[in-house]
């Protein structure tokens, strides 16, 4: 058990596997670096402010030199440098999503996620409050973000999390407020994201949380918090289409986040309200079979498989 990290709501692993980063979802948002030793011991390397409030997501740039974080409550994204030992430096950029105006029922921008495209060329930020995905170019020498394009989603859709297909030319959005998934075409050269039409999650009012895609790009899974279910999709046309196969109980309450093991043989769900993590074996046909009893984990909001 790692202690000394306040209200961690999302975790990310450095490409070296030696450092894990946690975001503190609180009014004064912060990110913390923790060094992991092979013997299971750890060292907290330090904490730095994100410059915003209520951060809900962070990710490590593939270069391993930059940490990216999304401040939900204040609607901004931040960049921190990563030193050779995995520790963090002072923030190098903070970008607030000041336009377009908030969507229906929203009081402002709400940056929910920030990720790097598979080829490393662009950084994408998903904003639930403005119904927009922003594409940035990261200056890898200065650690600053420059917007290059933005993709508008349906008003009131509430895009929450984006997941890329391994091929890098398509991505999938979980939209929290209109209960849809959206297949998006992606141009790796320009960073342009082109959303398609929203499609069913198979769960009615499900408050979809996150999609994950198997390493071979054949299947995708969606966590639905309302009905506490998992939706299984077949990925078709080299990533251009999702075909809904079925839904299954997640075995817990309010699955906020999903994660696949590195070889995609196991799927994990963090169930926030039941304080459990449920695990499933992933079959060759994408089927899910419960793998043992739920694991106790107080207010589970994120699972990060290390091996």
From TrEMBL:
Family label: Belongs to the cycloisomerase 2 family.
PANTHER family from the UniProt entry: 6-PHOSPHOGLUCONOLACTONASE, 6-PHOSPHOGLUCONOLACTONASE-RELATED
InterPro entries cross-referenced by the UniProt entry: Cycloisomerase_2 (IPR050282), Haem_d1_sf (IPR011048), Lactonase_7-beta_prop (IPR019405), WD40/YVTN_repeat-like_dom_sf (IPR015943)
One GO CC term on file: cytosol
Superkingdom as given in the UniProt entry: Bacteria
Span list, region Disordered: 91-110
Gene Ontology molecular function, alphabetical: 6-phosphogluconolactonase activity
Pfam families the record matches: Lactonase
Transmembrane segments: none
Protein name as it appears in the record: 6-phosphogluconolactonase, cycloisomerase 2 family
